[in-house]
Design a protein that fits this description.
The protein has 241 residues and is an all-alpha fold. It has one domain. The chain has nine helices and no strands. Helix 3 crosses helix 6, helix 6 packs across helix 8 and helix 6 crosses helix 9. The relative contact order is 0.16.
Length: 241
């Protein structure tokens, strides 16, 4: 299938919640999963935190981390360690490249923000450009909601993942912005007492935020991508692009 209005190009999602299942309020389901799988989320958080310590492994580790959380958000079973490891390795190359791209975007954005902020002292027009950088940074944060969930779910090239993430960031702009605020509020709650937040980070903070994001993005992926895939285009497992 060519995709949705020509925007999306994909070949396979994982199995979802049965279509004939009675609908549930996503917020209620989130808290059910959060409490039911709390200790598994703690385990996942610890594994992810340790695997990110070498820094270069952050992207692949995030792919494995996201795969487990995506399954939790779909109310599907997932083995924390084995699924984390399998999908970290399966998506290693693409996730590593994406993490490098993210790093470049962050560094370039920061440098440009500093430059235009300093130039604003003598040139008002250049000073206003720092707000353009801020807006672009917000869009980029919204794109990150979708990048890794798509990476572990569909057979997409990196270009397609980034393009689709940008489209979702724009077409769901109000919802994405609200989600950014919610994530910021949760982080503020965790880090209101900085020492407590730092102590909790290796154990639960990352998993809670990740679970929130996966619960948020999955219905959008379901509507615009998974439900658009015909039976002939579905395969058993995601293959490396």
């Amino acid at each position: 299938m060519a995709g949705f209005f020509g925007f999306f190009d994909y070949t396979k999602p994982g199995p979802g919640v049965p279509k004939d299942a009675p609908p549930k309020n996503r917020l209620i389901v989130f808290f059910e999963v959060l409490f039911r799988k709390f200790w598994r989320l703690v385990t996942l958080n610890i594994v992810y935190f340790i695997c990110c310590i070498p820094i270069i492994t952050i992207g692949p580790a995030t792919a494995g981390f996201t795969y487990v959380l995506r399954n939790f958000s779909r109310e599907e079973h997932s083995w924390v360690w084995s699924d984390f490891k399998e999908h970290a390795f399966k998506n290693f190359k693409q996730a590593l490249i994406i993490s490098v791209i993210e790093l470049v975007v962050i560094v370039v954005g920061f440098v440009n923000f500093r430059f235009y902020s300093q130039m604003g002292a003598t040139n008002a027009f250049l000073g206003y450009l720092k707000y353009v950088i801020i807006a672009m940074g917000i869009i980029f944060m919204m794109m990150r909601f979708y990048i890794y969930p798509m990476l572990v779910t569909f057979n997409l090239s990196i270009k397609q993942v980034l393009k689709n993430a940008f489209i979702f960031a724009i077409i769901k702009l109000p919802q994405n912005f609200l989600m950014l605020i919610v994530c910021a509020a949760v982080m503020l709650g965790f880090y209101y007492y900085l020492l407590i937040g730092i102590l909790l980070t290796p154990f639960i903070v990352l998993s809670v935020l990740g679970l929130m994001i996966n619960f948020f993005v999955y219905p959008t992926m379901q509507k615009y991508m998974i439900d658009k895939v015909g039976p002939a285009e579905k395969v058993e497992e995601k293959q490396e692009v």
